[in-house]
Write a structure and sequence with these properties.
This protein is of the alpha/beta class. It has one domain: archaeoglobus fulgidus dsm 4304 fold (2-Layer Sandwich), CATH 3.30.2170.10. Helix content is 27%, strand content 27%. Strands 3-2-1-4-5-7-6 form a seven-stranded mixed beta sheet, sandwiched between helices. Strand 4, helix 2 and strand 5 form a beta-alpha-beta unit. It is globular.
């Protein structure tokens, strides 16, 4: 299984969601999970992972099976100095057993590790990074995800789940 995860924040609360799917080209999730977390860590520039990693690990801990790949909203590697982003920290936290693919909507200045992926009729690329998987393969997987828009169907779905969870 592949897991796409995302987290959104309110005032001292976070909502983390995951959608599980079997294949990169799938148009619908086999299952969805959401989790609310109170007392989230404040955002610190350059240390986004400290805020985002704990709820992802909590979501994974509640699951019966580990995914073979995880897709995150963000970067695995940040820059030419191999500064680890959220994805690299997640990869290490999972003892390098689960490949992590980062899909970001904006370019990170100076990141040679990102592959620009155009989807649909959009002129704006997504930026793909990876750990535990060949980068070109990760970019091809994201390019081949279901949906006619820039952001694939299941990545839009996990984003919406987080937002909806916070608005309840």
């Amino acid at each position: 299984m592949i897991l796409a995860v995302d987290t959104h924040y309110g005032d001292d609360v976070s909502a983390t969601a995951g959608v599980w799917f079997a294949d990169w080209g799938d148009g619908s999730a086999q299952r969805e999970e959401t989790m609310i977390r109170r007392g989230v860590e404040a955002y610190r520039p350059g240390e986004f992972f400290r805020r985002e990693l704990p709820p992802i690990l909590e979501l994974l801990a509640a699951e019966r099976e580990q995914p073979r790949q995880i897709v995150i909203d963000g970067y695995v590697w940040l820059d030419a100095a191999n500064t680890p982003g959220l994805g690299a920290h997640l990869f290490e936290a999972l003892q390098r057993r689960v490949a992590v693919v980062g899909v970001a909507k904006t370019a990170f200045k100076g990141s040679p590790h990102a592959r620009a992926v155009l989807r649909g009729s959009s002129a704006s690329p997504l930026y793909v990074t990876a750990a535990g998987m060949d980068l070109d393969q990760a970019a091809a997987n994201v390019r081949g995800m279901h949906g006619e828009y820039r952001v694939p169907t299941l990545l839009r779905q996990v984003d919406r789940l987080c937002r909806d969870c916070l608005s309840r």
